[in-house]
Amino acid sequence: MSQALPVGHTHAQRWRDPQDSLGRRLSDTLFIAAALLLLLPPLLAVIIDGANQTLVTVLQQPILWQALFTSLRIALGAGILCVVLTMMLLWEQP
């Protein structure tokens, strides 16, 4: 990020790695597919298990929404702090 980004009609251009071969693209695709197969089934199991008859009752409890908004405030604060600290590190480098 030490150089200015180009301005103009560059949105139609796509970046391609000249050393990117079919084998590398296939290995990347296989790696991403394996990660999805590893991560999605447990997530779907939790979602399906949580979607039962008591879902409406749980969603009506104010403590759930209070916990949600508390978590979102903490996440927003942590994200802003992370961005600020990262920008400070980037500005620090010559």
From TrEMBL:
Its main location: membrane. InterPro entries: MetI-like_sf. It comes from the Bacteria. The chain crosses the membrane at residues 29-48, 68-91. Keywords: Membrane, Transmembrane, Transmembrane helix. GO terms for cellular component: membrane. It is found in: Membrane. The keyword Transmembrane applies. It is a multi-pass membrane protein. This is Thiamine transporter membrane protein. It comes from Serratia fonticola.
